[in-house]
Automatic annotation (TrEMBL):
<dbReference type="GO" id="GO:0016740">
    <property type="term" value="F:transferase activity"/>
</dbReference>
<dbReference type="InterPro" id="IPR002312">
    <property type="entry name" value="Asp/Asn-tRNA-synth_IIb"/>
</dbReference>
<dbReference type="InterPro" id="IPR004365">
    <property type="entry name" value="NA-bd_OB_tRNA"/>
</dbReference>
<protein>
    <recommendedName>
        <fullName>Asparagine--tRNA ligase</fullName>
        <ecNumber>6.1.1.22</ecNumber>
    </recommendedName>
</protein>
<dbReference type="InterPro" id="IPR012340">
    <property type="entry name" value="NA-bd_OB-fold"/>
</dbReference>
<keyword id="KW-0067">ATP-binding</keyword>
<dbReference type="GO" id="GO:0003676">
    <property type="term" value="F:nucleic acid binding"/>
</dbReference>
<keyword id="KW-0030">Aminoacyl-tRNA synthetase</keyword>
<keyword id="KW-0547">Nucleotide-binding</keyword>
<dbReference type="Pfam" id="PF00152">
    <property type="entry name" value="tRNA-synt_2"/>
</dbReference>
<dbReference type="GO" id="GO:0140096">
    <property type="term" value="F:catalytic activity, acting on a protein"/>
</dbReference>
<keyword id="KW-0963">Cytoplasm</keyword>
<dbReference type="InterPro" id="IPR004522">
    <property type="entry name" value="Asn-tRNA-ligase"/>
</dbReference>
<dbReference type="GO" id="GO:0006421">
    <property type="term" value="P:asparaginyl-tRNA aminoacylation"/>
</dbReference>
<dbReference type="InterPro" id="IPR006195">
    <property type="entry name" value="aa-tRNA-synth_II"/>
</dbReference>
<feature type="domain" description="Aminoacyl-transfer RNA synthetases class-II family profile">
    <location>
        <begin position="133"/>
        <end position="422"/>
    </location>
</feature>
<dbReference type="GO" id="GO:0005524">
    <property type="term" value="F:ATP binding"/>
</dbReference>
Length: 432
């Protein structure tokens, strides 16, 4: 009896007869041999069907198979160093489960990006897209393991909120039973509340930004992990961030070598990602840009060219710290030595991938947070619950937010963030 397994586990069965269930990704023939490219969701494998080694009906079935037909395949696993998986299958029997219709939209030729995004439900079946999303899954798991191993509690903040958490207007407004409500930009404020109950928490879920941006680094719906930690200061916050990034990258290197190979990723650039990371103040970064002939003034926000240039001066991610207070959200703690800047930092990824983390120490003083809310003309009544966190047992605390999709794009080495999420939501795309 053939042993049922998956392509991902095939190395365990060298020389043995196995059963696979999957789909025909592609095939080619040379008269007396069919070469079947089989995928089963866990990987891709070549099956070789030799005419004089199988029943006549089996060889005929293989000839009639169409792209993406679902099949059961029995064969002998053989080591093959030429294959990316390291193995191929000497096929003995093929049983069609369903024969796919002719004219599969994503034929094995060049297609435009808009066409591929219109067929995202099918595009993710291809090797590179499949590898990206499998690496996303590994990063997702690594994040959860990192925090679980360190005693953090997962909390789920609401997606529907009564106000902006960051005081911006880039919100998706909804009618909530006759009242105005918004899709959440961040779970941070709610995570802060949970941190005062549990000490160390993180939220991990979808967030929404109504930015009318078309850049390769922006989505209107994306996932963020947002830890919040009681009794952790600015320095402690940076330390946990760099430890997390090292942990994530090393987990991908450990468990997703095949997928990185499919993507032709230069893993030497990932192997060097070890804590600690360099730090540069916003003020020093401005001077660096000016010396490089960028037109940039203190108080300006960094764009992609600025972040890329700064990142190129380092071989690992780099923290940019102590941003101008006026640039950042109302809840960030001012530097006690210089109230013009905050105890906040962005972590910039190498290779032009830009900011992947933003974080800060939070204001824990009631009077100061009240002043900030008033200065930004925020409706205080909607933040009363948040102010209660300062009224009842306030402590110094810190947190940050990591964008999952930007992190996936960097680790995979792919150009556009829209490929890092199963179904992207961008300025002009809400289908499929």
């Amino acid at each position: 009896m053939a042993i049922f397994t998956t392509i991902e586990e095939i190395s365990k069965y060298d020389g043995q007869e196995i059963l696979l269930r999957g789909w025909l990704y592609n095939k080619r023939s040379s008269g007396k041999i069919h070469f079947l490219q089989i995928r089963d969701g866990s990987g891709f494998l070549q099956g070789v069907v030799v005419k004089n080694q199988v029943e006549e009906e089996v060889f005929k079935v293989c000839k009639e198979l169409t792209q993406e037909s679902s099949i059961e395949v029995i064969g002998i696993v053989q080591k093959d160093d030429r294959a990316k998986s390291g193995f191929e299958l000497l096929v003995k029997d093929v049983k069609p489960l369903t024969i796919a219709e002719e004219g599969y939209p994503i034929s094995l030729k060049e297609h435009g990006t808009d066409f591929l995004m219109d067929h995202r439900h099918l595009w993710m079946r291809t090797p590179k897209q499949n590898a990206i999303l499998r690496i996303r899954d590994e990063i997702n798991l690594a994040i959860r393991l990192f925090f679980h191993e360190r005693g953090f509690i997962l909390v789920e903040p609401p997606i529907i909120t009564p106000s902006s958490c960051e005081g911006t207007t880039e919100l998706f407004e909804i009618d909530y039973f006759g009242e105005n409500a918004y899709l959440s930009q961040t779970g941070q404020l709610y995570a802060e509340a949970a941190a005062m109950a549990f000490g160390k928490v993180y939220s991990f879920g979808p967030t929404f930004r109504a930015e009318k941006s078309k850049t390769r680094k922006h989505l209107n719906e994306f996932w963020m992990v947002e830890p919040e930690m009681a009794f952790v200061d600015f320095e402690g916050n940076l330390k946990i961030q760099e430890e997390m990034i090292e942990y994530i990258v090393q987990k991908v290197l450990q468990n997703k070598q095949y997928e990185l190979k499919v993507l032709d990723r230069d893993i030497t650039k990932l192997e060097s990602i070890k804590a600690p990371f360099a730090r540069i103040s916003y003020t020093d970064a401005v001077e660096m840009l000016k010396k490089a002939d960028f037109e940039f003034e203190w108080g300006d926000d960094f764009g992609a060219p600025h972040e890329t240039y700064i990142a190129e001066q380092f071989d690992k991610p780099v923290f940019i710290t102590h941003f101008p207070t006026k640039m950042k959200a109302f809840y960030m703690q001012p530097d006690p030595n210089n109230s013009e800047v905050v105890l906040g930092a962005d972590l910039i990824a190498p290779e032009g991938y830009g900011e992947i983390i933003g974080g800060s120490e939070r204001i824990h003083d009631l009077d100061l947070i009240l002043k900030k809310i008033q200065e930004e003309n925020l409706p205080q009544e909607l933040y009363e619950w948040y102010l209660d966190l300062r009224r009842y047992g306030s402590v110094p605390h810190s947190g940050f937010g990591l964008g999952l999709e930007r992190t996936v794009a960097w680790i995979c080495g792919i150009e556009h963030i829209r490929q890092t999420i199963p179904f992207a939501r961008t300025l002009n795309r809400v289908y499929p």
